[in-house]
């Protein structure tokens, strides 16, 4: 299996490790230190060797930061993890705060004293983050001190070694464009910004640019590496040579110079000494990168990573690959749902059993490269934990009489999938049906939306929430994230969220996943992936409109739908979606599963 169910969290580790860490800070003359959930690439996915926040606190979520001062400490997480953090972390050692509502900077402002030294690892904090931290420290009369050798690493016994996942070439037939052509496009973008070179820190940007994939982090085919791309001339890829076979190295050497990661900072200093104007993304590049360039004598041009937007706008080959991946995945998913409907009502199934079986069906396609993230298999109250990760310790039987939430995805060479279904197990209460239907109405509103060119995800986000708001309900996460093509299941810059400020463009792929999570009871989420497309002209309309093509092909459980709450248009959408699911997926199924699918996709 690609997923394991080991228990990663141990709240009891917090006190002794915090004490050990404080002793190391005192030895180094520091009054405090910041530990983010980040590695040197500032990505969402980090290898075990960089899971410092988890080692120190026990928190295993994908976003957060801890601060340790002499007598105080705290951990900051966003709304997805407010329940999880209290289950994984000793609140007596690391009290939890909401990353947005109670930000780290406010907490520091109330505690830092004149003359104190607050340390940070400059490769683990972005240029933008450090600016804010410097302001807070200056106002308090404290010093923000960059520490090149992370003090936590000195006390982390048994720290895993950095990964050495082998790099593979991604076929041009699936990439849709040669690496040479991509490099030429990015060099033009660099010139347009009046820069001499660009530094790429995001492994998915590098993977896309050079048409390669890796295996350095769980469930996402990323090669951990850095790159510099000059406006003219050959790029340089900084990657551990042990990850490259002879054939892969030969192919890459036709595109780029190859250097070891140990030469990265020297390469940055070289750009500085040559007086180059270097483009960096201040929201992604570590402070140490900016420092190496400017101390060498170079100057910075701050702009968005020039790879992000072209990577997000899928070309026709990538779109066709995603469609094929979703149809393949739909067959496995229908097999799983049919099996689940037989087994779950007996009361003999648990969360791990469901996750295992779903991965088994996906593996049965013969094309599965990995799952795209740890399956969120949430029974009862575990379903109310948005990013719940089932372990042997937390595993619960799936109860009859409550909805079951399962959020999962797959990595195929031609595409990445991500789907959530909330499934009725036994009879559902009127309240459960109402709440699920309110979520469904929001899901349909996004899927059916037509919007003018230039519309952002923030402008669409309200559509997913309005019916929940009318009932005094909401969900504490974004409505949708971007999705890569056999890359990251969470891809920027596009998103449907209050913070989604990037205009949606044809070719972008996003999730559509409103939800509702009554704490301690159950969770509801309905998620499909949507491709932004050019919409058919509207009669009498004056503007070019965009819309969505739904890529995901799996039935939505109508046993959890209160039909009287749906408008005629919403009912038509659901029936039309189910008709398409059966027509496309049914012919690919065995007779038993096809008969089951026909039954669950009947019009309501």
From TrEMBL:
| All residue ranges annotated as the Creatinase N-terminal domain in the record | 19-148
Question: Which organism is the protein's source?
Answer: Roseibium aggregatum
Q: Which UniProt keywords apply?
A: Aminopeptidase, Hydrolase, Metal-binding, Protease
**GO MF annotations in UniProt:** metal ion binding; metalloaminopeptidase activity
Q: Which GO terms describe its cellular component?
A: cytoplasm
Domain Peptidase M24 stretches: 320-534
**PANTHER family according to UniProt:** XAA-PRO AMINOPEPTIDASE 1
Q: Which family does it belong to?
A: Belongs to the peptidase M24B family.
Leader sequence segment: none
How is this protein named in the record? Aminopeptidase P family protein
Residues forming the Peptidase M24 C-terminal domain are 545-604
């Amino acid at each position: 299996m690609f997923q394991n169910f080991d228990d990663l969290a141990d709240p009891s580790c917090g006190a002794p490790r915090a004490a050990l860490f404080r002793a190391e800070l005192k030895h180094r003359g520091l009054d405090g230190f910041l530990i983010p959930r980040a590695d040197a690439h500032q990505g969402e996915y980090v290898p075990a060797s960089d899971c410092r926040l988890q080692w120190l606190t026990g928190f295993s979520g994908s976003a957060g930061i801890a601060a340790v001062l002499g007598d105080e400490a705290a951990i900051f997480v966003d709304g997805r993890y407010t329940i999880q953090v209290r289950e994984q972390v000793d609140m007596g050692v690391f009290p939890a705060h909401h990353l947005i509502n109670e930000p780290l900077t406010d907490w520091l402002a109330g505690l830092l004293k004149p003359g104190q030294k607050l340390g940070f690892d400059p490769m683990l904090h972005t240029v933008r983050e450090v600016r804010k931290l410097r302001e807070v420290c200056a106002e308090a009369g404290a010093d923000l001190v960059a520490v090149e050798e992370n003090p936590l690493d000195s006390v982390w016994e048994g720290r895993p070694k950095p990964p050495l996942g082998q790099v593979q070439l991604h076929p041009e037939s699936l990439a849709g464009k040669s690496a040479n052509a991509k490099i030429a496009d990015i060099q033009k973008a660099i010139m347009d910004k009046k820069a001499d070179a660009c530094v790429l820190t995001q492994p998915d940007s590098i993977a896309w640019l050079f048409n390669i994939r890796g295996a350095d982090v769980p469930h996402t085919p990323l090669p951990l590496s850095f790159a510099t791309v000059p406006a003219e001339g050959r790029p340089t890829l900084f990657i551990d040579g042990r990850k490259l076979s002879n054939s892969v190295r030969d192919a890459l050497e036709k595109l780029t110079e190859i250097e070891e990661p140990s030469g990265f900072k020297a390469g940055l200093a070289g750009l500085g000494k040559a007086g180059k104007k270097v483009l960096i993304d201040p929201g992604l590049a570590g402070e140490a990168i900016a420092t190496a360039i400017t101390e060498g004598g170079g100057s910075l041009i701050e702009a968005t990573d020039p790879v992000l937007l072209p990577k997000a706008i899928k070309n026709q080959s990538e779109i066709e690959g995603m469609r094929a991946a979703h149809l393949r995945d739909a067959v496995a998913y229908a097999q799983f749902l049919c099996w689940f409907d037989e087994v779950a009502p007996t009361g003999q199934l648990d969360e791990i059993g469901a996750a295992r079986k779903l991965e088994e069906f996906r593996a049965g396609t013969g094309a599965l490269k990995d799952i795209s993230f740890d399956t969120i298999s949430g029974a009862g109250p575990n379903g109310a934990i948005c990013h719940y990760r089932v372990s042997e310790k937390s595993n619960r039987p799936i109860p009859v009489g409550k909805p079951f939430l399962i959020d999962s995805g797959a990595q195929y060479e031609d595409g990445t999938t991500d789907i959530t279904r909330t499934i009725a197990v036994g009879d559902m209460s009127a309240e459960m049906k109402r709440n699920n239907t309110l979520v469904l109405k929001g899901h349909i509103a996004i899927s059916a939306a037509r919007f003018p060119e230039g519309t952002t995800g923030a402008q669409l986000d309200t559509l997913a929430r309005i019916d929940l708001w009318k009932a005094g309900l909401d969900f504490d996460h974004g409505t949708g994230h971007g999705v890569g093509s056999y890359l990251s299941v969470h891809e920027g810059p596009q998103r449907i969220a209050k913070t989604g400020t990037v205009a949606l463009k044809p070719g972008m792929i996003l999730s559509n996943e409103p939800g509702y999570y009554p704490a301690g009871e159950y969770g509801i989420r309905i998620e499909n992936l949507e491709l932004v497309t050019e919409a058919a002209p509207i009669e009498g309309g004056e503007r070019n409109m965009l819309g969505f093509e739904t890529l995901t092909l799996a039935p939505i459980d109508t046993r959890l739908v209160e039909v009287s709450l749906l408008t005629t248009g919403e009912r038509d959408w659901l029936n039309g979606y189910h008709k398409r699911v059966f027509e496309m997926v049914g012919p690919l199924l065995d007779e038993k599963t096809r008969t089951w699918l026909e039954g669950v996709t009947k019009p309501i």
